[in-house]
From TrEMBL:
Active site: K235
Pathway assignment: Amino-acid biosynthesis; L-methionine biosynthesis via de novo pathway; L-homoserine from L-aspartate: step 3/3; Amino-acid biosynthesis; L-threonine biosynthesis; L-threonine from L-aspartate: step 3/5
Start and end residues of each Aspartate/homoserine dehydrogenase NAD-binding domain: 10-150
Keyword presence, Oxidoreductase: yes
Protein name in the entry: Homoserine dehydrogenase
Organism ancestry: Eukaryota, Viridiplantae, Streptophyta, Embryophyta, Tracheophyta
Organism: Lactuca sativa
InterPro entries on file: Asp/hSer_DH_NAD-bd, Bifunc_Aspkin/hSer_DH, HDH_cat, HDH_CS, HDH_short, NAD(P)-bd_dom_sf
GO biological processes: methionine biosynthetic process; threonine biosynthetic process
Keyword Cytoplasm: no
Entry keywords, A to Z: Amino-acid biosynthesis, Methionine biosynthesis, NADP, Oxidoreductase, Threonine biosynthesis
Binding site for NADP(+): G10, C11, G12, G13, V14, G15
Binding site for NADPH: K136
Amino acid sequence: MKNIPIILMGCGGVGRQLLHHIVSCRTLHANKGIHLRVAGIFDSKSFLVVPDVSSMEFNDTFLMNICQIKSNGLSLQTCVESGKSEAFSSPESTKKLTDMAARLAFTLVDCSASSETIGAITQAVNLGCCVVLANKKPLTSSMEEFDNLFLQPRRIRHESTVGAGLPIIASLNRIVSSGDTIYRIIGSLSGTLGYVMSEVEDGKPFSEVVKAAQALGYTEPDPRDDLSGMDVARKGLILARLLGHRMDMNSIKIESLYPDKMRPNTMSLKDFLANGLQLLDNDIEERIKKASSNGNVLRYVCVIENSRCNVGIQELPKESALGRLRGSDNVVEIYSRCYKEQPLVIQGAGAGNDTTAAGVLADILDLQDLFT
Ligand SMILES: NC(=O)c1ccc[n+]([C@@H]2O[C@H](COP(=O)([O-])OP(=O)(O)OC[C@H]3O[C@@H](n4cnc5c(N)ncnc54)[C@H](OP(=O)(O)O)[C@@H]3O)[C@@H](O)[C@H]2O)c1
Ligand SMILES: *[C@@H]1O[C@H](CO)[C@@H](O)[C@H](O)[C@H]1NC(C)=O
């Protein structure tokens, strides 16, 4: 049996779902000769780890207890059981992790939403560990940090950073490594904005659609986090860098769906929802009418073309894959030498704990050959 040690960073919606998937796939993995040995878990405050990382693991009952405790909003610190686990807090936790990485190859899984994990994961991968990311932030900081992280590209997987479990990055990597030139990628990479743009097309006011999306739990607690386009831009940057473009967040043109005067540091969320939002209705309505008179629809997309990446509203043909999009699916169209007239289209749910964690688990399994 091949034993793969796992250290998990982040135990929120995705991290906990990953632990559930790992436990429920025990038989499936055993039939493939693999055992995933979870030996340490981080949250924002602590690092809970087995006393001897080279041989011990958290058993499945303990893992499910951890999920329960974390979903009750408690800290990992409360899970310490003498002889079975110990807890470290920063900066000792980082030192502990690096010491471990120098002695043992494990898979470090970043399911946090933090920009602070980049140092630790870069060190771990350069000490011989593998890294799997659902967290986009380590891939969207400076080009220099990106290069340092990718010194050992074969040890890194990050499928869930764009389109959750959808095989977007795997597909791009296959196209790139076969020498097929990609001319253009255009994608609706936000479930929230996909939903909003298809609903306003039916004539509903923008403000009401955003509020409905918020009530359905489709948006971040402050919908402006989605409407700013920042999250789409991060995904666009990851795709552009995969194509070899050396660019930063500040080289991306991002269209925010609300003006500067309604930014969170200028206007409260309450004021935005009660007064600000409806001031945006007319403009969107005009734009939809104009697009419609051209036989087109509006989509909020990321476009990568001619070494540039733009994020914002575009007019697109009704009958294209993006034009036909309804609801909260993600859709990506890839145009290349092989997919010239008709693009390669990847479509499906692009968010959710379940599919995101499934993408992370598939990445972990994909790295199995690097372990003996
Ligand atoms: N949910 C989705 O649909 C989806 C889709 C694609 C990608 N993602 C990405 O997946 C990641 C996780 O998402 P989520 O929804 O699970 O987020 P979440 O519920 O907010 O969980 C984040 C977890 O990270 C922990 N954390 C914060 N700072 C940390 C640090 N410095 N080191 C280690 N752990 C830290 C938090 O600790 P506490 O428990 O102490 O707060 C929490 O357990 C995010 O980067 C997100 O962008 C999510
Ligand atoms: C993801 O998990 C979090 C935490 O358990 C939960 O609040 C959220 O509703 C879940 N999201 C989805 C789409 O299931």
